[in-house]
Automatic annotation (TrEMBL):
Chain ranges of the Rho-GAP domain: 1030-1218
Phorbol-ester/DAG-type domain span: 965-1012
Originating organism: Scleropages formosus (Asian bonytongue)
GO biological process terms held by the UniProt record: cell junction organization; establishment of epithelial cell apical/basal polarity; intracellular signal transduction
Family annotation (SUPFAM superfamilies): Cysteine-rich domain, GTPase activation domain, GAP, P-loop containing nucleoside triphosphate hydrolases, Ubiquitin-like
Cell location: Cell projection, Growth cone; Cytoplasm; Membrane; Synapse
Residue stretches making up the Ras-associating domain: 15-113
Protein name: Myosin IXA
Lineage: Eukaryota, Metazoa, Chordata, Craniata, Vertebrata
Cited function: Myosins are actin-based motor molecules with ATPase activity. Unconventional myosins serve in intracellular movements. Regulates Rho by stimulating it's GTPase activity in neurons. Required for the regulation of neurite branching and motor neuron axon guidance.
Predominant subcellular localization, coarse grouping: other
Length: 1297
């Protein structure tokens, strides 16, 4: 398949791809179904093709699910999602022709009525389980293993052996998650486990921790609901060694947090994070000796929420990119992935434009290994291209990024040699490299060469600083894509997920490992503070019975490294200030200051190294390059050279002030626009000699006194074409307007949304004030001395710890199961070592004997006020007395001076008691209310009975009369009833049919022409199918998309009741309604609706809608309609409601369109019939948008306002469309006049409907074009008609023709 370069990005010439969709139990005879699709093919179109090929039941609802790489999680695709675009993000192995692959695939799932996904037969599983139990009883199968404990706090005998055995036993059963109270222990299985599909997402939704099997979803769910209930920020801290699965756990958490907000459908934020992951991975990950995809930086992902729980934005913060890897790699290690992707995947045009070579020809890449087993670099480059496009990088931006990467590689190829006649000077061996670097950086070659001759360290320093600045810029752009403008003004609720580099101990550990391990020391100290120190101090302060538990406190190690003025970091900064300092002087200073400190040792032999006793063990660090890496600055003349680059992109990377850069970009765009106007005027004046010069007019656009700046900009205008749009400051001039936030598929591509402005630039730059490692070191000419790398890293770490301190923490401890990355291999020694240095035994002990639930006295009394006796005061004695009466375990709670401490079991018991008491009171209130209502009804009926008895004594007995099959007899009416013949009221005593309950006056019984329905039905020999209370699909067909009974009732109401006041508000006679319903059930065609009052017909129509087993808007889409109505922006609400309507089946959609069109016609006559859109929505919302029976009744009552507003919105939108089309009728009158003058031609075009999903549905509008024989368009008009016929005005035009 050939490739073509388009704006710096390769594109396939053949746009078609083959999707393999596995239907599973939906089509058991089919393993997979191939579907040909393009990049723009939506999931709804793929499902439609699958239904046709597999001949599936169209009355059911189907969804497309994607199984992703990280653990086989199933993610439901939106109907508008494009499966091919998601498939392009898969790795190469997933795209091979494998039928039995377990990780990447598309699945076809059936959606149940309640919105859940159908996965298989539970009865079959139960049958297999029962057979296995019988085989065990007969001795054919071994007995089950002893029960393991999903919470280590429940171990009866607590020691290292039982701890390890329990984890091993669960691991062998593929149970990788275990609780320690609220702490989650995750053992990396190095294998796919199918425990991350939507079934588990729904299973763990809004459940208490510990009720179900331990899972990472449970931690995310508890954090999410705790944030909403307490209105406090939450954080989830993930820690562990390199290779323990921290990044995968982060992916699970982020996707589950998004699923809780979006109910399984990918939002704009999730899509951006999905694209940001491969981008950050390519630029920040590399192969190390222990990990083929090791993250060489740390990140903190903060997901921001509205108070309703909907995701509205996110923020990514990075920590300490390992810059030294760019210029030097240890044995069996590689440089960053992106270099290998670019060299392997670039097209021939790109290779020529970027001067690319093979990896072994670059000094920065040929130091050790080039390849990793099983990788496909070309596919990875395609995946990176698509991910960058999803984040918002336009082709021009990607081209400049790749050009800069090539320049960095060529910088490493510059070689030096000493001049023979001078010992202190150097020369460049290969001068042919300089023009290439100059061309890629767009700087002058002579200036570049003279600067490189001044110092040999300039090359590596410049390369590292440029790459670090590029990485900062990419993170800035990703944060802009995730930014929500409301975050700038309002306070937010958030959940942060920390995925930071794990503890490292390599053969040669340098400055980077020292910083990484220091960060892990801080995190371990944070864990100890919340798990041991603060909790035990609180117990002692509250005066409760408590036996203190000892733990390993690592605060001494932290003080050794960072405490002023003798901390190792501060001593390192002092040595960096002395030009004469060496590695040995630095080591000597360490010895003098910390000799005798138990946390630091020095080798016995003369070795430039020192040993730190970390919480995870001893690590030896070599002091070589410590001072250079701590400063790592660039010379001011190099900065000046890069700032003089003709590329605004290069200039923006080294800018220290993003706000100033953005303002300059705006000013530059203004000048360039002015120059463009003047150039256009000059060319125009040259063509039209003698007229005023356009250049003079255009010069008025320039401010006075522009002078030299104007001439300089004119030159730059001619040098840099095309002109640059203004937008984001991070991209320089040419790329300012290209990045917009969360652009969803189908959005308008003509105008970018959420472009950067000064306010948003200030906000984003303010978030990273602590992280100016690259920018400050690029500007050494400033008066204030720039901080060192260690100082910057400490500032970043302190900000992170402040963020964590302001949040409620949850901990996920990741454990590496084996060192060889083998699937389901459990290494006892390796796991035990990790359990020891993390203090897991002490953690279990304090969680086992401690109290995880805490309330203040006031909060406890408020939360459990229903259980407390009236007048109970929130003090220690009152609460202790209540606990004693509640029959709780004495060891499960303690009441302190101001706090109440509970264990999880006791809290759950109190919650159950509270739930039962609340239900009991609700039932009591309902019983009392119903008794009052029945009492009132009884008193009224008793009074009426007395009146009737008096009247009956005055009336003589009436004889039985028979007419048209009716058997009329004197009947007493207890409620107001209307005569079904003359429609006037019947007073107390009159006639009624004893068979069908036909009610009428005595004078009317012989006049009625309606036959008794009971007698007619009893004589009928053949029973027809019923029309009420049956599935809609049974009443429709391809020839009749709308049920006959619906069309008959609606047409009659529109013909005779359009102007009737309260047409749907007033009810008809109950007996008449019953009679008409029975007649329609018997034979729709033979029923004469003229015999019935219009309110009876309207009531029967509403009854038909209410009797549908599945309402028009379906049970399965009920929650999605409510979710759409909960959006903030009205346009988003309308777009959301109509996107849900698109998911309806053809049968439901056709009937809904007919009903909405009918309601629009009713609402248009509001002045006469007093039925507004709101009044109609109140009446019809319970009929067409009913809640499923599985929803809590109290919740359904709260949803009434949303369902009514949803129906009112649909009616209102269709009214607007209807009115807009009726305005064109005046053009038809004009056309009629033209018809008498000259012959014309009428063209009728069928038009609009509510949804475009049903191409075979009959049209709901007619478009008419009138064209004369000279091909002159005289008129075009649209009108609407429920019967799909031309309106009278159009018929008259045709007749005139």
């Amino acid at each position: 398949m050939s490739l073509r370069d388009v704006g710096g990005r390769r594109r396939f010439e053949d746009p078609e791809f083959t999707l393999r969709v596995y239907p599973g139990s939906i089509a058991e005879d089919t393993i997979y179904c191939p579907v040909v699709a393009r990049k723009t093919t939506t999931a709804a179109e793929v499902i439609e093709r699958l239904i046709e090929r597999l001949r599936l039941d169209r009355t059911k609802c189907y969804v497309l699910a994607e199984v992703k790489e990280f653990g086989g999680e199933e993610w439901i695709l939106n109907p508008s999602d494009c499966p091919v675009q998601r498939m392009m993000l898969w790795p190469r192995l997933a795209l091979e022709n494998r039928v039995g692959g377990e990780d990447y695939r598309f699945l076809l799932r059936e959606k149940n009525l309640d919105g859940s996904i159908h996965y298989g037969s539970l009865q079959m599983w139960l049958c297999v389980t029962e057979q296995r139990r019988r085989m065990v009883e007969r001795g054919f199968l071994p007995p089950p293993r002893p029960k393991d404990h999903d919470d280590l706090c429940n171990l009866p005998d607590l020691n290292e052996k039982t701890l390890l055995e329990n984890l091993r036993a669960r691991f062998k059963q593929e149970k990788i998650y275990t609780y320690v109270g609220s702490i989650l222990v995750a053992v990396n299985p190095f294998k796919f486990l199918p425990i991350y599909n939507p079934k588990y997402v729904k299973m763990y939704d809004n459940h208490q921790l510990g009720k179900l099997e331990p899972h990472v979803y449970a931690v995310a769910d508890v954090a999410y609901h705790a944030m909403l209930q307490r209105r406090l920020n939450q954080c989830i801290v993930i820690s562990g060694e390199s290779g323990s699965g921290k990044t995968q756990s982060t992916n699970f958490l982020i996707h589950h947090l998004t699923a809780l907000s979006q109910k399984g459908f990918a939002s704009g934020v999730e899509q951006t994070i999905l694209g940001a992951g491969p981008v950050l991975e390519a630029f920040g990950n590399a192969k190390t000796a222990h990990n083929n995809n090791s993250s060489r930086f740390g990140k903190f992902i903060q997901v921001n929420y509205l108070e309703s729980g909907t995701v509205r934005g996110a923020y990514v913060e990075k920590y300490l990119l390992e810059k030294s890897r760019l210029v030097y790699q240890e044995h069996n290690e590689r440089n960053y992935h992106v270099f290998y992707y670019l060299l392997a995947g670039a097209s021939e045009e790109e290779r020529a434009a970027f001067h690319l070579k093979k990896p072994e020809e670059y000094h920065y890449l040929n130091q050790d290994c080039f390849t990793v087993e099983g990788e496909d670099l070309k596919h990875d480059f395609e995946r990176l291209q698509l991910a960058m496009e999803m984040v918002g990088f336009l082709p021009a931006t990607r081209k400049q990024i790749f050009s800069l990467l090539s320049a960095i590689l060529h910088l490493g190829n510059i070689r030096y040699k000493r001049k023979t006649y001078r010992d202190d000077s150097i020369d460049i061996c290969n001068l042919e490299v300089l023009p290439v670097v100059s061309d890629l950086l767009e700087v002058g070659t002579p200036h570049l060469g003279s600067l490189f001759l001044q110092a040999g360290t300039v090359r590596d320093s410049m390369a590292k600083s440029l790459y670090s600045a590029l990485f900062d810029w990419i993170v800035f752009r990703i944060n802009h894509a995730l930014l929500n403008n409301r975050d700038l003004e309002e306070s937010i609720l958030s959940i942060g997920v920390l995925d930071i580099f794990g503890f490292e101990d390599y053969e040669n550990n340098s400055f980077e490992q020292f910083c990484i391990n220091f960060a892990n020391e801080h995190l371990q100290h944070y864990f100890n503070q919340h798990t041991f120190k603060l909790e035990q101090e609180e117990y002692r302060a509250e005066g409760i019975s408590w036996l203190n538990i000892d733990y390993i406190d690592n605060s001494g190690c932290i003080s050794l490294i960072c405490k002023k003025p003798t901390g190792l970091f501060h001593l390192l900064d002092e040595e960096c200030n002395f030009p004469q300092a060496t590695n040995q002087t630095l080591l000597d200073k360490f010895k003098r200051q910390h000799d005798g400190n138990s946390y630091i040792e020095f080798p016995a032999v003369m070795e430039p190294a020192f040993i730190i006793r970390h919480y995870a063990g001893k690590v030896k660090y070599g002091v070589k390059d410590f001072r250079e890496k701590n400063t790592d600055h660039m010379r001011p003349d190099i900065v000046a050279l890069l700032k003089s680059s003709r590329s605004a992109f290069i200039g923006s990377l080294i800018s220290i002030d993003p706000v100033a850069t953005f303002r300059w970009a705006v000013l530059r765009a203004y000048y360039r626009a002015a120059v463009a106007f003047r150039e256009a005027g000059r060319r125009r004046s040259e063509k039209k000699s003698g007229e005023p010069s356009g250049a003079e007019c255009a010069s008025t656009f320039l401010p006075q006194g522009a002078g030299e700046r104007q001439q300089h900009l004119e030159r730059s205008w001619h040098e840099e074409q095309p002109p640059e749009p203004v937008g984001t400051a991070a991209g320089g001039g040419r790329h300012h307007g290209e990045l917009h936030q969360q652009q969803t598929p189908g959005a308008s591509a003509g105008h970018p949304h959420h472009l950067l402005d000064v306010k948003s630039v200030k906000y984003l730059s303010g978030l990273t004030l602590h992280d100016r490692i690259t920018k400050s070191l690029l500007h050494l000419h400033k008066k204030k001395k720039p901080p060192s790398i260690s100082a910057q890293f400490q500032a970043s770490l302190n900000k992170l710890m402040e963020t964590l301190e302001q949040s409620e923490p949850y901990f996920v401890k990741c454990i590496r199961s084996n060192a060889d990355k083998l699937p389901l291999r459990f290494s006892d020694s390796l796991v035990l070592r990790q359990l020891r240095y993390t203090g897991m035994l002490e953690t279990v002990r304090i969680r086992q004997s401690g109290y995880s639930i805490k309330y203040s006295h006031e909060d406890f009394a408020q939360h459990f006020r229903v259980l407390l006796a009236e007048g109970t005061k929130p003090n220690q004695l009152s609460i202790q007395e209540f606990m004693r009466k509640a029959d709780l375990s004495p060891g499960g709670f303690q009441v302190g001076r101001t706090m109440v401490f509970l264990r999880e079991a006791e809290r759950q018991r109190l919650q159950d008691l509270l739930h039962r008491e609340v239900l009991r009171r609700i039932v009591a209130l309902q019983r009392r209310f119903r008794a009052l209502r029945e009492r009132k009804s009884f008193v009224s009926m008793r009074l009426a009975a007395c009146v009737i008895q008096v009247r009956m004594q005055l009336c003589r007995p009436l004889q039985v009369e028979e007419h048209n099959g009716h058997i009329f007899k004197s009947t007493q009416y207890n409620i107001p009833t209307y005569c079904e013949y003359c429609s006037s009221i019947i007073w107390i005593m009159d006639r009624a049919c004893v068979l069908c309950r036909y009610a009428c006056h005595r004078k009317c019984c012989l006049k009625t022409t309606t036959k008794c329905s009971k007698k007619v039905r009893s004589r009928a020999s053949v029973h027809t199918a019923e029309k009420f209370g049956v599935e809609l699909s049974r009443l429709t067909s391809d020839d009749r998309p709308v049920p006959q009974v619906v069309e008959k009732l609606i047409s009659y109401i529109e013909m005779h009741g359009l102007y009737t006041e309260g047409i749907y508000r007033k009810s008809g006679s109950t007996n008449k309604i019953k009679e008409l319903k029975q007649g329609l059930d018997t034979d729709v065609d033979s029923m004469n609706l003229d015999d019935y009052n219009i309110h009876v017909i309207a009531s029967v129509f509403k009854q038909w809608l209410r009797d549908l087993p599945n309402p028009l808007l379906t049970f399965e889409l009920y929650e999605e309609f409510l979710r759409a109505m909960g959006l903030q922006d009205k346009r988003e609400v309308i777009r959301g409601v109509y996107s849900v309507i698109d998911q309806l089946s053809r049968t439901h959609l056709s009937t809904l369109e007919r009903l909405i069109f009918h309601l629009v016609r009713i609402a248009l006559q509001e002045e006469t019939n007093r039925m507004s859109a709101n009044a109609l929505a109140i009446v019809f919302a319970p009929c067409i948008l009913r809640c499923p029976d599985s929803i809590d009744p109290l919740q359904s009552v709260q949803d009434i306002s949303k369902t009514t507003a949803c129906v009112e919105l649909i009616i209102g939108e269709q009214m607007n469309k209807y009115k807009a089309r009726l305005k064109d009728i005046t053009s038809l009158e004009y056309a009629e006049n033209k018809c008498s003058v000259r012959p014309v031609e009428v063209i009728v075009v069928e038009g609009w409907s509510i949804s475009s999903k049903t191409p075979n549905a009959p049209p709901r509008a007619v478009s008419v074009e009138i064209i004369d024989h000279d091909d002159v368009l005289l008129s075009r008009s649209c009108t609407s008609s429920p019967s799909h016929k031309l309106c009278p005005s159009l018929i008259s035009v045709e007749a005139g023709l």
